[in-house]
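[job 0412] stage=fold_complex status=start
inputs:
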Amino acid sequence: MEISKQIGEIKTKNNIEVEDEKVESDLRNSALKIADEIGMSSEFCGRLLNILLTESVRLQNVQQNDNEQRQTHLSIFMKAKQLQAMGKNVIHLEVGEPDYLPPKNVKIALGRIYDLQQYHYTETRGIPKLRQAIAKKVGNGITDEQVIVTPGGRFAVFSAIVSLVKSGDEVIYIEPAWPAYRECADFIGAKTKILKTTLKEKWNPDLKRLEEMINNNTKMIILNYPNNPTGKILNDNAMQRIMDVAKDYSLYVLSDEVYSDYSFNRFKSILEYGYDKSIMISSFSKGHAMTGFRVGYGISNKKIIAKMSAIQAVALTSVAEPMQYSALAAIDDNSLNENVKMMRRRLGFVCDKLQKMSLPFVAPDGALYVYPQLREGMDDDTVLINKLLDLGVAIAPGSGFGESYKRFIRISACQTEEVLEKGLEVLSSTL
Amino acid sequence: MEISKQIGEIKTKNNIEVEDEKVESDLRNSALKIADEIGMSSEFCGRLLNILLTESVRLQNVQQNDNEQRQTHLSIFMKAKQLQAMGKNVIHLEVGEPDYLPPKNVKIALGRIYDLQQYHYTETRGIPKLRQAIAKKVGNGITDEQVIVTPGGRFAVFSAIVSLVKSGDEVIYIEPAWPAYRECADFIGAKTKILKTTLKEKWNPDLKRLEEMINNNTKMIILNYPNNPTGKILNDNAMQRIMDVAKDYSLYVLSDEVYSDYSFNRFKSILEYGYDKSIMISSFSKGHAMTGFRVGYGISNKKIIAKMSAIQAVALTSVAEPMQYSALAAIDDNSLNENVKMMRRRLGFVCDKLQKMSLPFVAPDGALYVYPQLREGMDDDTVLINKLLDLGVAIAPGSGFGESYKRFIRISACQTEEVLEKGLEVLSSTL
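[job 0412] stage=fold_complex status=done
writing structure:
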């Protein structure tokens, strides 16, 4: 550990990246060779090596340790909230929290909770009525026994990763990405492998590279389409190839589809591929504008749902019953269609403005965001973001979705066009 | 691992207990001696040994692995709910869920949520108003920065254990106990050491024994007074001795005080002892009859609250805002006093009935339960509980609170005297 720290200091001083795939791969090969010689299971050997590598990388990241609070959309949101508490006006273009109202039925449901006494412990996996309604909504032959209701989509991600992945196992995800995947994997001590995508390649992942990243410690691939932050939707061909690879290596596939309501091009849920080891995650936060109700869900085979349910029982018994009934009241509401149309108009509006600023981007296929690149000569994301915050505009830094995306920012279209215009005006003049 | 399994089979066949403190202690001493000789940190050596011991114990528990679903108050509750869904009448004496209504102000708060738009992401640690109100309520100079609002007291327990204790660390708790403490410690791979108490000693822990259980891998002591399931409140003297020991060894003390509203004898919160490494946990579930709202809180120093908050951010972003405003509406309600008086009457009623059945018990100092012992010749708890469930009465098995309490049951007084009478009538005739 002491040596690792020293290596970290030398690497920092000489501007060498801490992680080196080639070195790790060589190390892995020689360790596996020894394991083979002494009759040790190669899977166990790989896990053990990964635990050591992860600890070593943590120690070598001197800079990151010094400045642990990496800026993300959430940290900017918290900062913006503090500024507001101090009396400052802030335009929120950093957070994926729709400005429109939840369905009217939710108001009626809330008004009835007390008299109907809908405020008790429920089954850990959620009230049967809500699970049945969710099963019906997602279709594909899913039954209520394959559904777990969670406090937000985030807890579904958390419980899936934490219950299916062990310390030293490997998880692959595609960047740029919502930071939660890495956070959950780090929490359980898993090794994360990142498949980076680029604006140049229109955010399409290199699937040959994906397959090369898999070894016998890989346990899970995480997908998120429509993507946060890029708005990308993968085409059926690419999805099919990923599912084939997952089947070949018997990997879990966690598909975070919280933005699927906002699909402007054809989107095919992972459930349509009928793969047994897949976990689909969604929530009421985005489509129904119900972020603060904290109701999400996970869908998988019964065995996986039982594992996620066990974690949920340990951590929080059950989801607040009043919030489950609020979600039930919202599920069939048709205000959703209007929300989706409006969001599409707004994203178009943002794209037009960004084009006028000559910032390169890929027009989103879905979700709530545009993820433009900063041009040469402009500030890096966090410098720019802090300047903007001083001017009363909160925007998410690109590097919050992956270290290598310092030259990007994420703009959320969860405001009226009037507000968007004001915020983008400030962005344009600052740039 | 293979050898461990074989040892487990032999132990099971010969009725030998899996865990043997003497053997573990000898093993620990010899390992520490080797560590000393080769210049390895004794703390690291102890952790490593504990990880191996925990895995070995898990593998040796053949029987437990065969029959993983130990009956607890929660599993009986879930069974009872299923029976009800099938049309059967069940009297619930198994669960700590008050039958009376939450404060009337909560109804008003729920009715306003929609129009006041109180349904957004909040600060991870909770809305400032609620944290301020909680700080004011608990007194002892606590400020809102020392408060975190959690989805139920359970998540406060989970986040405290998971953020302060590492795999291989040791946690001491006192049995009989709510199973959550062990579940959370198991989840993170900590070794649990159990200080057992007995009816004969009026559920007083042997504090000399407590001190002997501490070694340099011990990180936390968990307390729960008024106790679930016994209703015991520790006297000031005993609490002071525990705090002194904790200070001497610099241990965290997690004090779960969710039943403190229901104290019929003098109860002193851990906050009154002014120990920096203490974490007090409480909730709105019991005192305000708001179980299904899932709002609890943790109180500690700022550094510990920041750690718990980091876990909460990873797992669930923030607690549902409508539930936080409901709790805020309840916090100053004076219906609490009436609830406490009523609960005391009911517990007295249960005690009278148990006396008539000649079941030994200690009259509770607080909480919602009586924990009587079964007499010789009677069935063990789970056999009895299943008979009762067939007859439409749900009661919690004693062994749900610790393996060695098969000769106990827990009766919850969260029903009217009329219902309690009916349920206890069935218990009496079955016995």
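[job 0412] summary: Chain A touches chain B through 54 residues (CB under 8 Å).
[job 0412] exit 0
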